[in-house]
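Reviewer 2 asked us to include a model.

Predict the structure of this chain.
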Amino acid sequence: MFTRSKLKGSLAGILVFLFLIMVFVQPAEAARKKGVIIGGCTPVGTWTLVAGMFSKLITKNYPGYAASPLGTSGCSIENVWRVHEKEMEIGLTTSNNIYAGYHGKTPFPKKMNILGAISIYSSHNHIIALKSSGIKTLEDLKGKRVAIFNPGTFAENFNRTILFPAAGIDVNKDFKKDNSSLPVGINKMKDGHVDAMSFAGGIGSSYFVDLASSRDIVFIPLTEEVTVKILKDNPFLSRLVIPAGSYKGQDKPILSVGPVNQLFVGNYQSEEFVYNITKIFFDHIDQMRKVHNIMKDINIESSFKNIPVPLHPGAAKFYAEHGLKK
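Predicted model (structure tokens):
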């Protein structure tokens, strides 16, 4: 006979069983999810936001996978190394470093195991001078105090090896270079301790907006001659324009160049994995665009066009479905 005591015992047993399921089965299911690390940059900045949102989208929309962002101090270069070494699955980098990594050029001692997947937004190089300095052209920078930023960064390498040499300027002889970080360099310009700076960043960067609001500044355009020389020698860079009105007091468009930021993967990743993450990115492009204003114009066509290395087969399959082939 099924007595009250037996019923209580049965209920207790059921509750214990359910408890055990919650304690052991759910964590086991979570543990079975494959981890995906997306390498960004420092704790603040657009890359951090991109890596964070993309991680959320993958975790939510790719069954069996759990993605998380990782801020790296070495950013662009470190991320290439980590993907190469299989320490992360997806990384953010600049077009110059994905190009250098793929081809085994400086700063990489050998060919890295990386391939392209998604290009996101351009970083326009900004050459900015205090109006009071009298600087109006690149030639006027000679003899002045110019921030080219800290060694190991894209900015310093670009300024030292690409931009200024193309203009016939030696950063070690023709002006007094300043190797401060971007925040320090901006403050030095505000205080008048630096006359000019050259740095690649997204249009509307808070650093540039703050500087334009604090001091009277001028934006120095590249000449067509310098632009052509830079692009001829550096196929990983793009011709860009900073539209008029992007900053306070900037009433004319400014000719510039710069890298396109990239989401890339290891060449050892499966076609299925890379196809799915690329599809997830563009299936939820509205959410990615909301990460930052400089992401607002990204689309499948522009992403495909601005990848300077061969595509991973999984990404190539996705773009091919949209009529895009290399």
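The mean pLDDT is 90. The first strand starts at residue 34 and ends at 39. We have added this to the supplementary material.
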